[in-house]
Each structure stands twice: as C-alpha cells, then as structure tokens.
Amino acid sequence: MANQKSEAALLKKVWDIANVLAAAGVGFTDYITQLTYILFLKMDSEKEELGLGSSIPEGYKWEDLVDLSGTDLVEKYEEILKELSESEGIIGTIFTRATNKIDKPVMLAKVIEMVSSEQWYMMEGDFKGAIYEGILEKNGQDKKSGAGQYFTPRVLIQAIVEVVNPKIDETVADPACGTGGFLLAAYDHMKGQSKDIEKQKFLKNHALFGADNTALVVTLASMNLYLHDIGVNKSPIAYQDSLIDTSDKMYKVVLANPPFGTRPQGSVEVAANRPEFVKTSDNQVNFLQHIMSIVKTGGRVGVVLPDSVLTDTGATAQVREKLLKDFNLHTILRLPTGIFYANGVKTNVLFFEKGESTKNIWVYDYRTGIKHTMATKPMTRAHLQDFVDCYKTGAIQDRKATYDKDTNPNGRWRCFTEEEVKNADNLDFKWLDLEEKDERTIAEILDDMQVESDGIAEAVSMLKNLLGGIEI
Fold first, then answer.
1. Is the pLDDT of residue 126 over 70?
2. Would you report the helix, strand and coil content of the chain in percent, each value rounded to 5?
3. Are 180 and 133 in contact (CB under 8 A)?
4. What is d(CA 64, CA 221) in angstroms, rounded to the nearest whole number?
5. DSSP SS3 for 108
6. Strand, coil or helix: what is 103?
7. In angstroms, how far apart are the furthest CA atoms of the chain?
8. pLDDT mean across residues, the chain
9. CB–CB of 117/16 below 8 Å?
10. Residues 350 and 303: beta-carbon distance below 8 Å
11. Helix, strand, or coil here: 208?
C-alpha cells in the first residue's frame, strides 16, 4: 500500500509540472521526452555515488548541470544532449536525436528540481517502471499530440501475451515497438518462469528486441525498459525502419501492433529493399510480410491488424494466400472500436505459427454488439478473459466452440473448417446477429466527429497537393 501511495505522490508531481509547462506552451510529449533525459542523468549520478561507475563522459553529467541557472543552464543542457546523442550503447539509444524542447530556463529548472527531489536508482525496478508506464499512458491520452498511435492498451497486450505464452529461453521481437508495451509484458510473463541465473541473464540482456523509426519513441521505449532493469548496458531497442531491414535475425515469438495506412512521403520504397515482398504501399501488409520473414519455423505470432488485411484484394490477397499456405493462422480475435487512444479503424488480432498451412480458423468475435469508450466504458482485462479461456493455450486441440447453429447462434467463439476457409471470399468472418448500441456521451460523439472531420480535411488537402495545377 505504501508503494501505491508513493507512486501516486510521484505521479502527482509529474502532472503538476506538466500543467505548469503546458501553460508555458510546452506540450506533454515534449515534456516527457525531456523528463526522460533528465531522469537518466540523475540515475547515472546516483549509480556513481554508490560506487557502481558512470556511463556518461566527464563534463556532461548531472553534477555539471544541476547547480546552473538562467541561460547557462539551457546552454549546458543542450551541450549535454548533443554530446550524449552521439554516444554508443544505452546512452546513444536513450538520447537518440536528442534536442531541447524547454527553452525557458525557469521551466527547465522546475523539471530538474522535481527529479532532484527523489532517489531513483535504488527504487525497485517494478515500482519506478510502473511510474513511467503511468506517464506513458497519460501521454497516450493526449489527443493533440497524436501520441496515442504509439500506445497499445495494456489490457489488450496482457491478453495477447498470455495466450501466445513466450517462454524464458525464447527470443521475442516487436518490429514496431512504440513505447515497448509488448516487450515489457512479455518480460513480466517470462521472468517468473525460472530462477536459473543464466536464464534470467539471457532474458534481461538477449531475449528481447524492439525497433521503431521515430526517435522520440525509441527514447521512450528504451527508457521504459531501462527503468524495469532490462537492457541496462545495451538497449534492446533499435532506431531503424523495420520495413527496409534486410538483416537475417529471426525470433521465436513476434508480438506487434504495427502502424496502419501508407508510408510517409519521402520514405524509402519497401519493394526496393525487399524484392521478395509482394509490392504494396500499405504499411500493415508490409509489416505482415516482414513479421512472416522474421519468425522462426515453429515460432508464434500475435499481431494487431486492420480489417483490410482480411478483406482487400490485389496485393493484400496475395499476401493472405501466402500466410494461409506457409503459416497456421489458427485464431482471429475481432476487436471492438473505442479501445485505442488514437481513433482508428476496426482491428483484429491474428495468431499464427510458422511451418504448417492453415486448416481450421477459430474466430472470437469481441466486436459485434460491443462498444467501449476511453472515458466512460474502457475495456478491461476482465472483458478479454472469456477469449483467453476459450483460446486454451497449450491445448488448442481441446477447444470447444460456444457457437451452435441451433442452440447458441450468438456464441462468440466459432470454428471455421478448412473447407469453409477455402470457400470464403475473405477472412472477415461474421455470424452474430446482435443489436449494436451506441453508448457514447455527446462529448465523445463530438470528439469522434471532429476526428472524422480532420481526417476528411487532411485527405482533401493531400488530393489537392497530388492534383497540383490539374483542372478538374
């Protein structure tokens, strides 16, 4: 209970400073990034005081910063960020492309003062990690920042990890890792499986791998794992574009919620680096192909993907055909709307294994007739318990459908036979006949309308740019 109180007190300090900075024009995402840099400097100083050495070069440490004020403080801080962003190892990862976003000395001093008031290094890893996870979740809720796209709801991650069931001696990758939620949940799931020292060392230093092509996210993810005592010397997080990665590294388990939509303008074309891929501009289809290429034979995958992957024709259909031929897509979880911070399209979780072709596909429909909202009716881990129970991890052969054509036509757990799968036009299986109720508040409806309006405006703008001077 004391830990809960301490955690709440620390989080309150973080929010209080966030509110002060917001009033001065510093957004929450910028704040949390600077907080990460300053927190690392403070922890390194505490580590050195304990006689455990420092990872930071002389002249760029906490002590070189903490007693300064005014423009001297800002200038020294920016000098430190520049130096550390060019470093190797964990420091270079956490300070990836680091720049200062708090240019007012008095505001920067407030953040330093708040961090200075606590002893962080000797805090239990789970405790300080929980504090940081809380900060990341708050950041994900910030609609203006768009940070929600990096944050997958932890209750969904927990359920996916539980059924995929990574083992302590297995490797786990997330090629679009965001703030590291899947890797952290996998670590939590695996760490209690053995007390063997060598296995624990392997888990902390070699089992996990994550990548992201956004510098901010690499900073947040690497710090998130570091605060949980994972990858203390070398971060398992890499700053890279997974879709053009041609390394031969392969993993036993892959867990991911990759970005949807098309690649940003100016990005390297995927097909240019990955000629073995079916050519497409869809991020989600390219990520599916990448995941299929990095999972070992016998390996397991749990990946969040939009409905379009199950339904689209053309290149998507070709990839889907390869998935069914070379992998056992044994389970699909249909997800409801209203569970992601970023207002997204309808999604599913695909669970598959490499090495055998698909025969039966089991589908759990947790979408039809269900509506969640972030504010009034958020999805909890309990909502997914029935799916976890039906999945029967380690005993898939013992699964029993809750759907029955005559006795329970609205059962949510149904098996589609090999013949039904072959004869289906796509993999978007629907059978429930339930009334869908809209339980959103007026405020939430207005928010959703605003998001849709913004999306239309953005699409119109893009079309205008594409058409240029062409008269229609």
1. no
2. 50, 15, 40
3. no
4. 26
5. helix
6. coil
7. 77
8. 86
9. no
10. yes
11. strand
Instruction: Give per-residue pLDDT as tens, 368-386.
Output: 999 887 777 889 999 999 9
3-class secondary structure, 297: strand
Token pair listed for 352: 């598959």
Retrieve residue 32's tokens: 């949390």
Report the alpha-carbon distance of residue 334 to residue 416 in Å, rounded. 14
The helix-helix angle for 181-191 and 215-227 (nearest 10°) equals 20
Interval 401-417: pLDDT, tens: 999 999 999 999 999 99
Two structure tokens written together for 463: 């079309």
Contacts 24+ apart (CB under 8 A), 79-88: 80/41, 81/37, 83/57, 84/37, 84/56, 84/60, 87/57
Tell me if 56 sits within 8 A of 79, measured CB to CB: no
Dig out the tokens for 215 from the structure. Answer: 């510098």
Residues 6+ apart with CB under 8 A from 170: 190, 207, 252, 253
Distance of alpha carbon 363 from alpha carbon 452, whole angstroms: 29
pTM, to two decimals: 0.82
pLDDT tens-digit series, residues 197-233: 999 999 999 999 999 988 888 988 888 888 888 887 7
Comparing 45-59, 179-193, 262-276, 453-467, the range with the smallest average pLDDT is 453-467
Instruction: Count Cβ atoms below 10 Å from residue 322 Cβ, excluding itself.
Output: 14
Q: Fill in the amino acid letter for 162.
A: E
